[in-house]
């Protein structure tokens, strides 16, 4: 594992902001899919490949994270905040994997294709089972609520570091070294 320079590496920063945009888009797409019958088919066609893209980017992001040590948190940060920061980051990683995998499994159990684009569908990862589909659909919804809450808390913590503490935690992800 490479030592940190006080900032996240360029790959980490690009993946962080790209995935932040994709995850926020997915949350809004998911809510709109449920609320709108008119937009539902088009949004489902967008939701499925975006979910798989997030899964693939999460793999790249985790590999990068394991190879490059993140910058240290401020030494004066209370122990509970350090623990919360580490737990929330690993929870976000877990959700970036769990949400697309549960969605893919749910569609497989429902007998639906995971259409990436015209003519290209992913293979089923579970056998057809209406009961399993229903359970996975509930799990996918529950995980979406957990993801939303975790993203809101992550954003609040980032803004706290940027605007209140002004301790460099936010800038470590927002800007590269030398700025």
Summarize the structure.
With 179 residues, the chain is mostly helical. The chain has one domain (10-174): Transmembrane di-heme cytochromes, Chain C (Fumarate Reductase Cytochrome B subunit), CATH 1.20.950.20. The protein has helices spanning 10-35, 40-67, 79-110, 130-165, 169-174; strands spanning 114-117, 120-122.
Notes on the protein architecture:
This protein is mostly helical and 179 residues long. It has one domain: Up-down Bundle (Fumarate Reductase Cytochrome B subunit). It has helices at residues 10-35, 40-67, 79-110, 130-165, 169-174; strands at residues 114-117, 120-122. The protein has a two-stranded antiparallel ribbon. A hairpin with a 2-residue loop joins β1 and β2 (120-122). α2 crosses α3 (79-110) and α3 packs antiparallel against α4. The protein is elongated, with a radius of gyration of 18 Å.
Main features:
179 residues; mainly alpha; Fumarate Reductase Cytochrome B subunit; two-stranded antiparallel ribbon; 2 strands; 4% strand; elongated
């Amino acid at each position: 594992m490479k030592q940190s320079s006080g900032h996240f590496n360029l790959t980490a920063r690009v993946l962080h902001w790209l995935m932040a945009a994709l995850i926020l888009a997915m949350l809004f797409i998911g809510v709109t899919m449920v609320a709108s019958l008119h937009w539902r088919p088009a949004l489902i066609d967008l939701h499925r490949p975006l979910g798989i893209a997030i899964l693939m980017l999460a793999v790249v992001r985790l590999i990068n994270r394991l190879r490059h040590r993140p910058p240290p948190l401020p030494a004066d940060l209370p122990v509970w905040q350090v623990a919360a920061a580490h737990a929330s980051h690993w929870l976000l990683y877990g959700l970036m994997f769990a949400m697309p995998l549960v969605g893919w499994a749910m569609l497989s159990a429902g007998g639906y294709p995971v259409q990436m684009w015209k003519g290209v569908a992913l293979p089923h990862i579970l056998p057809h089972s209406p009961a399993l589909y229903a359970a996975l659909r509930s799990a996918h919804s529950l995980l979406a609520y957990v993801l939303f809450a975790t993203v809101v808390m992550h954003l609040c913590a980032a803004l706290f570091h940027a605007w209140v503490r002004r301790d460099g935690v936010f800038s470590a992800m927002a800007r590269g070294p030398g700025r």
